[in-house]
Specification:
alpha+beta; 3 domains; Rossmann fold; 23 strands; BirA Bifunctional Protein, domain 2; Translation Initiation Factor IF3; 5-stranded mixed sheet; homodimer; 473 residues; 7-stranded mixed sheet
Chain lengths: 473, 473
Amino acid sequence: MKNEKITSRDVDFGKWYTDVVKAAHLADYSSVKGCIIFEPNGYALWEKMQQVLDKMFKETGHCNVYLPLLIPETLLAKESELVAGFAPEVAWVTKGGDKELEERLCIRPTSETLFSDYYHTVVKSYRDLPLKYNQWCSVLRWEKETRPFLRSREFLWQEGHTVHETREEAEAETKQMLAIYERFFKEYLAIPAITGRKTEKEKFAGAEYTLTVEALMYNGIALQSATSHYFGDKFARAYDISFKDRNNQQAYCYQTSWGSSTRMIGGLIMVHSDDNGLVLPPKIAPTQVVLIPIGDSEAVIDATHEIADMLQKNDISIKIDDSNKSPGFKFAEAEVNGIPLRIEIGPRDLDNHKVTVVRRDTREKASYDYDEKLVTVVRDLLEKMQQDMYEKALARRNSLTFEAHTLEEVETIMNKHPGFIKAMWCGDLACEMKMKEIRGTKSRCILEEKAIDDHCVVCGKKAKHLVMWGIQY
Amino acid sequence: MKNEKITSRDVDFGKWYTDVVKAAHLADYSSVKGCIIFEPNGYALWEKMQQVLDKMFKETGHCNVYLPLLIPETLLAKESELVAGFAPEVAWVTKGGDKELEERLCIRPTSETLFSDYYHTVVKSYRDLPLKYNQWCSVLRWEKETRPFLRSREFLWQEGHTVHETREEAEAETKQMLAIYERFFKEYLAIPAITGRKTEKEKFAGAEYTLTVEALMYNGIALQSATSHYFGDKFARAYDISFKDRNNQQAYCYQTSWGSSTRMIGGLIMVHSDDNGLVLPPKIAPTQVVLIPIGDSEAVIDATHEIADMLQKNDISIKIDDSNKSPGFKFAEAEVNGIPLRIEIGPRDLDNHKVTVVRRDTREKASYDYDEKLVTVVRDLLEKMQQDMYEKALARRNSLTFEAHTLEEVETIMNKHPGFIKAMWCGDLACEMKMKEIRGTKSRCILEEKAIDDHCVVCGKKAKHLVMWGIQY
């Protein structure tokens, strides 16, 4: 039985996506143009992501801080590439209370400038280094269209900003954070992402280079999902972040920044969910198991609570749905909300010392003994589901990853079904722009793999890089 | 030995406060006027507060959400008292990208309007109620002066917003949240707060009434520390939040809101800290124990790690300071940062199977056996310290709480040393304003205690309420 509120994924992917977002109570549009409301289920997912990532950041020696929301125009203007990249899309505060401000302030689109200004005041000696800070906050970019989690004027994210004594240390940090994101995508979101370096055209304004995590959605569209930037000493020179080094010489610092956002929720939906709603990998699901008692006999209620206790004691997050709604309604609701496992506890099953367990991803239903081994059964099912979801996403990605050796091949592939395309590139901007003419195909990242050809897929001249191409959100 | 970076608390309390904030790396001023930087130690305290409060909120059935940062002017204007209360102190966004906006947007000073607008769209039936939402975010108020944590243009807070079917349920929620704050202050912050209802003059703009948690700082100045508001159906009428009730009639909802902020960090400092820096109650300290190895002999290093493991396994948060600094420097640093216990692990002590433990609050130093019982010793010391800090704060508060029966008595008390003053009040605004002439004395809250007199302390007419008065931050 299909959920009537949700358009089929294969009929209209865009409509399916917003239907799932609404039906699973993840987000809603607000009266504030371009801004969305993160509803309880959507925000709970973000909290879970924060929890996991925050732990990974702290384990690698990072601290959280909080810097101001507003950036004075002169401060923003110090790094010319950054200001050129962001100025067209910031919101400006020009009035405070009743007074016109002497200098207008922008709402942070990102905080390199503020961190650099702060590091300028606190970094004096090599003994102060490294400083490895991160902040969880919202940022604002004056976007024209709104798609919940994928594109909105305001979104939630984390932005790490670090400052180091040496180039090597800063580059190692840039790589390390990319690896953390990749691991998070693989182990928690069950998303097989690809990673690599952005081209000059696609890198972050002001960065020496940008490393990126790119994921492929079910429909073959690519999503830039997290990035890690190496700045060299560019910001240090613009904001004068210098220190007495080990030889008592004044030297500039090396910096990085790295970020991931609520956009990951969009990726999670578009990789795993189906026509019945959200499907969540167990390791990121705020609620892993929902217990649904059928009827209200004492035996059923007691068993429900006993199972709940058993699971909670084993760190499995649960919810009991003992509302007045019908069992069918509850099943559908658990399904649309993407709760990985549903345990139905009914009087007839109980008479046979059984309960029914249903997996959300495959919708497989099976009967299990109601005894102390049920915890192991549940844990195994959650692990299996996490693994299966990753394998399924990987198979899908692989089936939509192609190789192309000529522009015609790119065109044929993209016209048939969008996906990732591996193709060689000479390094010229002109060829990158030429690719873009084919349904907006852009370079996703430069891969560190063996060349598949010796000539550029566009111009036929000597190729420099193997690039993964795709159409992006 | 006194910390040289810190002005004595009894010499200049204001200077002492900012010295502690800076020396303990809690916050720093930023280049953005009126905004502060929450540095790692300050933000870690906020994270710990969030963790505890968030758990309390969730245990009482609240969910987290996130609503937009920006509020369109027309939406703000719908509730006239609220807009009158906040309009003079909001920041206005008038430009997005290169374009002048058709309608200006303010940065949220609080989110009653946005929540009400959202509830208007989602509440249809009594079956949808209650909705008990909370959000963690930053808010902005265009303040003129800046004092880290106490007053700044931007600060971090949580704001709960709930909507209910009945008046009774909403009022019970208002009371429940006040009780949660009071418990948090007592059990975690070790602050004996008083609670009660605000007068009409001091209540939140737009509320039917406001309940408040008021704390007394070491210097006798009062700090409004958390508030819980009951709105009746005022916002429901202004924003049309109505629903089909159990009799199938259209009815208005009843609402509450309640909030606490990074201002609590200021309170924590001003109640407990001393001339050597921060003093933190163990239950809110991000790091409870610092282990300082003396020298680098294998025995010392091994013992340090063994003790660290032992404590961590028992959920005691620790930090090892094995940096190159001298032991004396490390001791001073642990002290200024307010880490509750410091364990010194030295070679001579170890030869006698001993370690030295120093309490931050009393600076008592004692030698304990280095064996498996050390965990119990540490746990007991932490508990004792938590208790002692509360008792000490309570004694201080009591010694600065007075009763007054005439205006002259109020004047004499406040001129000698500010504090809390219990005095009767007739309920007239004129008398409240008259009190204010005495060094800015304001009503903190109406107490639910037995009357101490039958006449108003100001006008001598029949008294209605026993009020706690104080000079506020």
